[in-house]
Design goal:
single chain; alpha+beta; Endonuclease, Chain A; 4 helices; 40% helix; 20% strand
């Protein structure tokens, strides 16, 4: 199905393993709009994430975001400019930050929860 040699696929496999072990991963991605260059990429990513049991939603129509935000068990946050693509994974031009400190992560969890409530099913 997906090659284990592809570095972007490794992210999907790792996320799937985390979920398989009982972890919670939720993702919100931009709503795919036909006139935008990321239309197919976002639909493809949503499908791959859902296939692996990762709760995925689209940010409400008409709104977009560039920053990516991943939450793991409401205790670890990863955010930055990276995409779930091969180019982003092997490029040195994208950067992400991992946070585990309780105060900042709880703020991010609250922010994410608000976005989740406003987003639509992928």
């Amino acid at each position: 199905m997906y090659k284990r040699s592809d570095k972007a696929s490794l992210i999907f496999f790792a996320l799937a393993e985390f979920v398989r072990r009982g972890g919670l991963v939720e993702m919100i991605i931009d709503y795919p709009r036909a006139h935008k260059p990321n239309y197919n990429c976002n639909k493809f990513s949503a499908r791959r994430l859902k296939e692996r049991g990762i709760a995925t939603r689209f940010l409400h129509k008409g709104t977009s975001q560039h920053a990516k935000l991943f939450l793991f068990d409401d205790s670890i946050a990863v955010f930055g400019s990276h995409n779930l693509t091969r180019g982003s994974v092997i490029s040195g031009y994208d950067m992400s930050i991992v946070m585990g400190a309780e105060g900042p992560v709880q703020y991010i969890v609250s922010f994410f929860s608000d976005l989740w409530a406003e987003s639509i099913e992928a």
